[in-house]
């Protein structure tokens, strides 16, 4: 069986798994009283069950663990991602239930960011901003802190973009699908498994979207948004190992374009206006589109299109670098 069919099997398993598990999780959340009441920055009306991300987590990991043995390949990084995902999931469940302090969430993400470096997932090189070539982060003992920063930033950016029905799941599906397409073109063992993981992540997002697209029946919650962000952060680091290091980070940012650029813009604005970085508001791109009169569906379609453009450009740049 070729790598493409491994990925296809992972995608289908994850999609059906998430689709079938979401109603179960919805009932569980309602029974446990884990619901989101409308807040000042929210656009939904009425109490919405959270924990939808549990369906994404279970479906993704199930598909990965069932299909990786079919490849006959194994690697340490997979164990790191699974362990990190379980930690993210546990604290995400607690946050959706008890609304943990922002500092606790930050410390957890930093800890998980450090953990994956133990399993060999890290940024070892970045482009030199002061001239040609690259900077060896391992030599400068910076690979661990840079990796932690990347994991925290991508995870929080994905969490923040989850403000409109179907937005985070759809954009994550596009990004994960793009990473799978890139990784599957490589023959290295690490990249075959990376392609499979990305395909499983994309599939679970698609399956969950059936219940989360406007009008949504359930939200993914912190548990889902941070799991997606963590997985995407890891996959960008292991999917692009054969790309010239000068452009690896740039391609990663393009693949994650909408959430990363939105988070960067909002963070810069808060710094300029001296507002707390963790303070939630209606300054994000989806809020701005809604203010201009777009419906939730129109807003999501626009941002899907922007994400597709970013990802298409990333694939073109990736293909050019490989040849």
Structural class: mainly alpha
* Sequence stretches where pLDDT stays below 50 over 5 or more residues: none
Distance between the termini: 26 Å
**Largest sheet: number of strands, sense, barrel closure:** 2 strands, antiparallel
How many strands appear in the DSSP assignment?
A: 4
**H/I helix tally:** 12
Order of helices and strands: HEEHHHEEHHHHHHHH
The 3D shape can be described as globular
Number of domains: 1
Percent helix, as a range, is over 70%
Strand order of the largest sheet: 1-2
Proportion of residues in extended strands: under 5%
Oligomer: single chain
Radius of gyration, CA atoms, in whole angstroms: 19 Å
**Integer average pLDDT:** 86
Short account of what is shown:
The chain has twelve helices and four strands, in the order αββαααββαααααααα. The protein has 323 residues and is mainly alpha-helical. It has a two-stranded antiparallel ribbon. A two-stranded antiparallel ribbon has the order 3-4.
């Amino acid at each position: 069986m070729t790598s493409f069919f491994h990925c296809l099997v992972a995608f289908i398993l994850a999609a059906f798994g998430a689709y079938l598990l979401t109603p179960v999780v919805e009932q569980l959340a309602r029974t446990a009283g884990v619901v989101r009441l409308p807040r000042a920055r929210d656009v939904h009306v009425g109490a919405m069950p959270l924990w939808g991300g549990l369906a994404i987590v279970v479906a993704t990991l199930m598909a990965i663990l069932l299909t990786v043995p079919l490849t006959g390949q194994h690697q340490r990084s997979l164990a790191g991602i699974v362990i990190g995902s379980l930690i993210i999931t546990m604290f995400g469940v607690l946050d959706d239930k008890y609304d943990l302090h922002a500092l606790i969430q930050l410390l957890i993400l930093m800890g998980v960011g450090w953990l994956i470096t133990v399993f060999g997932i890290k940024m070892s090189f970045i482009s030199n901003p002061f001239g040609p070539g690259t900077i060896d982060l391992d030599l400068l003992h910076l690979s661990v802190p840079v990796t932690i920063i990347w994991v925290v930033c991508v995870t929080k950016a994905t969490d923040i973009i989850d403000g409109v029905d179907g937005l985070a799941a759809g954009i994550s599906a596009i990004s994960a699908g793009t990473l799978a397409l890139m990784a599957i073109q490589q023959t290295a063992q690490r990249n075959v498994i990376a392609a499979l993981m990305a395909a499983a992540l994309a599939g679970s997002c698609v399956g969950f979207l059936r219940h989360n697209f406007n009008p949504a029946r359930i939200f993914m919650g912190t548990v889902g948004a941070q799991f997606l962000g963590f997985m995407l952060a890891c996959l960008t680091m292991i999917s692009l190992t054969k790309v010239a290091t000068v452009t690896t980070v740039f391609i990663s940012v393009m693949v994650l374009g909408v959430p990363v650029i939105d988070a960067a813009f909002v963070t810069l604005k808060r710094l300029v206006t001296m507002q707390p970085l963790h303070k939630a508001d209606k300054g994000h791109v989806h809020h701005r589109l809604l203010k201009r009169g777009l419906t939730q569906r129109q807003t999501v379609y626009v941002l899907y299109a922007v994400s597709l453009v970013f990802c298409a450009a990333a694939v073109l740049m990736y293909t050019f670098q490989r040849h």
